[in-house]
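Researcher: Can you fold this with D-gluconic acid in place?
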Amino acid sequence: MILQKFPTGFLWGAATAAYQIEGAWNEDGKGESIWDRFTHRPHTILNGDRGDIACNHYHLMPEDVSLMAQLGLSSYRFSLAWTRILPAGKGQINQQGLDFYDRLVDKLLKANILPHVTLNHWDLPQALQEEGGWVNRDSINWFAEYAQIVFERLGDRVSFWSTHNEPWVIAFLGYAHGIFAPGIANFSQAYQTIHHLLLSHGKAVQIFRQGNYPGEIGIVLNLENYQPKTKTEVDRQACQRAYDNLAGLLLQPLFQGDYPQQLFQWLGQHQPVIASGDLALINQPIDFLGVNYYSTSAVSFHHHGGLLKTTSQPVSAPGWGKTSMGWGINPAGLKTVLLDLKDNYGNPKMYLTENGCAFPDFPDSRGFVADWERINFLRAHLLAAHQAIATGVKLQGYYVWSLLDNFEWASGYQPKFGLVRVDYSTQQRIPKQSAYWYREVISQNAVAI
Ligand code: GCO
């Protein structure tokens, strides 16, 4: 057996998000978020599922931290529910909400697990949505107020901060395609949302620097590996547009201080309103980039392909199929994405803040899931990451999505992403085979091939 060793100090983590696991949606002073509102509307979520109870992590948090300790995690990435802390999004602070995260951070540190906090994993306060949400330029100040409060309370103990999780998903699934909260379908609003998310990120980084807090701060992007479906010029250009609209749209302003010009010409009237000085605020040095990688797609030109006139299909690597989300499993695509960051965006320090897969897990009579497919998936992606590191990519940690089976947004509870199974009828946590495998990887700081 050959062991592929990871660099000393490499972080081994797992990730979750508040709305997907916490439940307790209206307890202890918590306000309503756009996801509470959205899931309570009919026809938004598969099977009418909602996150009201989810994994009941709000009440089972100590037990969940023990689970993480048993796995040997060195870091845990989770998000804060903005509405627990500021029920109306701004103004009145709810101490009980802050206290919950304070206890979580302390419990993690006691278990030798470094906290990685995401400030915004999509659950914007509904009260702010009523003022226009991310389309309103005031959102920069709302987010700054929230960030400042949290830095003040937890900044002495949190090692890693991510401002936003996946601005692309918030903007396009939330404001252009209407399939995620707040359920709006308007491309102009989506591009304005991207711009304000980036500005509010910049502002939060500024506040973080001013406070001299000890941790690192960055942002988390979902990056996909896009390949042109054919060698034709139209498909090549379609693929370029898809790339510019995801990686380019975010990495260029963050690392180079401008937006992709060709894309913006294509967008015409849908371009966001940009004020002078905006790009300088966005283009601030960050300590790390968080990358979420799940899949690879082939892009082609399509007359009915929406604003960008593109369509895409999953591309599985030879011998690999698709996950139950229908995403093409392609470990080499992860290496391609990381090398793009190294070669074209100044080789930032990075964490793989999410990587994982949903499969139709089949529990045995004791509730145990022998999820060898997940193990194969994770192993192959870790080996791809290892190869990327060998070429000089500065990847310093890896977080499995997800610690627990949880509420998978519009797909409800059907997809199972966890290392640990959750029996929703009893809230029992049952580690899957992959959890034992991951514990071994962590303890050896290596993947066996
Ligand atoms: C995302 C989010 C997670 C998802 C995961 C699986 O990447 O969409 O960060 O909340 O649950 O990615 O879809």
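Model: Folded with D-gluconic acid in place. Residues 3-448 form a domain with the TIM Barrel fold (CATH 3.20.20.80).
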